[in-house]
Amino acid sequence: MPALPLIAVRPAAPADEAELAELDRSTWSTLHAVLPRPTPPYGPFFEEGHPPEDFLVAEAAEAEGGAPRVAGYVRVVPPTPLASNAHVRQIRGLAVAGWARGAGVGRLLVRAACDEARRRGANRITLRVLAHNEPARALYASEGFAVEGVLPGEFFLNGRYVDDVCMGRSLDPA
């Protein structure tokens, strides 16, 4: 696994919008996307329902001595507006730049998402992942997420039905 200098995770800021939007477009893949490939004119990355405070950003330098830049992000939100499940947070988006893959950025973001969920009072975190996204499923499983349900044929992508896998884990106190 290659090492990246200066990996740090921080809350997103409005000034990150352009870099996050570009990262989101550059990482679009049929492996994880259920929406069509983005095409111009592009909408805003941050918008109502997707404010900066929902995102954590990983920064790293591509090379020793280089300036840190966005290497990835994770979005962590309440799954519903209901008070009855306010103790849960959900990962609803994770992306890692191509140049940063294989260096532990995704793992760092998953751990940061769990820490942030715990900080916001959650005792449980969930996510949904497409069944054919084996790399993501393996990462989540290695971080303590278990399959809690499968929605068979939930999406029709590239001419075939794809299962949606629901995963979750308890958030033990830090």
Automatic annotation (TrEMBL):
Any Pfam family hit: Acetyltransf_1
GO MF, any single term: acyltransferase activity
Domain of life, per lineage: Bacteria
Keywords from the named record: Acyltransferase, Transferase
Residue ranges occupied by any N-acetyltransferase domain in the UniProt entry: 7-172
PROSITE patterns registered for this protein in UniProt: GNAT
Entry protein name: GNAT family N-acetyltransferase
